[in-house]
UniProtKB/TrEMBL annotation:
Residue ranges that the Swiss-Prot or TrEMBL entry lists as coiled coil: 143-174
Ligase among keywords: no
UniProt entry keywords in alphabetical sequence: ATP-binding, Coiled coil, Kinase, Membrane, Nucleotide-binding, Phosphoprotein, Transferase, Transmembrane, Transmembrane helix, Two-component regulatory system
Listed name of the protein: histidine kinase
Transmembrane segments: 7-26, 41-59, 66-86, 98-117, 124-143
Gene3D superfamilies per the UniProt record, alphabetical: 1.20.5.1930, Histidine kinase-like ATPase, C-terminal domain
Enzyme Commission number(s): 2.7.13.3
A Pfam family matched in the record: HisKA_3
Protein origin, superkingdom: Bacteria
The organism of origin for this protein: Plantactinospora mayteni
Catalyzed chemical reaction(s): ATP + protein L-histidine = ADP + protein N-phospho-L-histidine
Taxonomic lineage of the native organism: Bacteria, Bacillati, Actinomycetota, Actinomycetes, Micromonosporales
Domain Histidine kinase/HSP90-like ATPase: 281-370
Amino acid sequence: MGPRQRLAVDLPLAALCVVAGVWDVFQSGLFAGSPLVDHRAPLAVNAALGLLTGLAVLLRRDRPLLLWGSALICWAVVGAWPGTILAQYAVGAQLRSARLRIALTAVMVIAVAWPISRSNGGDAGAPLSIALCILPVLVGLYLSSRREVLANLEERVRRNEREERLRIDQARAEERAQIARDMHDVVTHRVALMVLHATALESAQGRNAVTIAGRIQGIGREALAELRTLVGVLRDGADAPLRPQPGLDDLAELVAASRALGHTVELSVEAGLSAPALVQHAVYRVVQEALTNVHKHAFDARTTVAVGSDGDGLWLVVRDDGGTSAPSVAPGGGHGLLGIAERVRLVGGTLDTRQLADGGFELSARLPVTDPDLEVHR
C-alpha cells in the first residue's frame, strides 16, 4: 500500500476517533460508565482526547503504543470505543513482541470489561471485551502475517529473477567464450593448412599445382563457412544455421587434411566409443589445435593420434617425435595450449603436456562422460 492509499484509509479512521470523543452516540447504553469519572467530562476534555486519539491513528504504523495509550485514556475518561478497536488492531499488526501483545491486551480487556460489567450486571462484559479487545488483535496478527508472507514471496520472486538474469548472463558469456575458442581453432588450423599448401604450390608444377590450388580453395571455403556460422551466432537476432558440431566421426577427415600436406599422421580410435556431443566436440577441437601446433613447430615429424575409453571417460593422446618448424607459417599468439586447457576444463577433464626425451611433444587429456553438468548441456 502506497502513501496515498494509507492516508486515504487513516484520515477517515482518525476523524471517527475525533467524533467519538464528543458525540453522545458513542458514549451511551453499555458504554456509559467510566472507571475514573462518574459524570460526563467537559466538552473540551472530550475534544482534546478525541483529537489526541485521532492524531495517534495517523502514527499508528510507527508508534502503535502511542495509539494504545491514547485510546485507553479516551475510553477510561470519555467512554469512546472506536479508538480501542484501532489500538488493539495496531497491537496485533505492528508489535513484534508476543509478551507485550498479551500484556497490553490483558490490560485493555480489564479496562473495557470493568465499566461494562459494573453498569450492566456483568452479562455483557466478556462478549464485548472479546469483540473490542481480542478480535482486533487476531485480525491484526492475521493481516500482518499475510503481508509478511506476500512480501517474502515477492522478494523470493525478485531474487529468483535476479539469479535467472545472472545465470543467463553467465551462460551468454560462456557461449561467447566458446565461440571465440572455436573461431580461434578454425582460423589457426585452416589458415595454417592454406599457408602450407601455398608453400608447396610455389615449387609445384603442372597438374600437381592445380591439385594443390584446388585444396587451398576448398580449405578456404570450409573456413569461411564455419566462420559465417560462428559470426551469425554472435549477431543479435541472427538465425544461425543449426548443424551438428564436429565430433569423433570427423577425426578421420581432420587427419586426412594433414596427410594431404605430406604429414605422417596415424589415427587410432577405439571402436564403439560413445560420449556426449559436448565431449566429442572438445576432443575434435583438441586434436585440431594439436595438429595445428605440429604443422607449425614440427612440420616433418611423425604424429600419432589415439582416442580410447577407460570406462568412465575418454582419453586422448597426441604425440609427435620432433621435427623442424615450418618457416612460412605465421607464429601463433601463444593461446593454443591455453585454449585447449580451458576447453578440457569446461567439460570436467584434465590436460597434461610434456616434452619427450627424443625431442618430441606429447599432449594427453582425459574427459569424463558421466559428469552431471554434461547432461545439463546435452
